[in-house]
Q: What sequence folds into this?
């Protein structure tokens, strides 16, 4: 149940967030795996995803 509630807090599916940060930062699967504390906690993934979104938005605004 806790994992379901955790996933509801974010508007992006976890697989899309992982793909985005892997494409941008070129992190290995082992690095991504270290962001999980357990099967239900993937907040580290979303931290980097939303950071990436912010950086991209800032770059668009500078043009």
A:
């Amino acid at each position: 149940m806790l994992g379901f509630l955790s996933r509801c807090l974010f508007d992006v599916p976890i697989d899309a967030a992982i793909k985005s940060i892997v494409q941008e930062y070129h992190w290995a699967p082992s690095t991504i795996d270290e962001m999980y504390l357990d099967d239900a906690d993937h907040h580290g993934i979303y931290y980097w995803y939303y950071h990436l979104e912010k950086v991209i938005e800032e770059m668009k605004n500078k043009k």
User: Anything to note?
Assistant: The first helix runs from residue 2 to 8. Residues 29 and 38 are 16 Å apart (CA to CA).
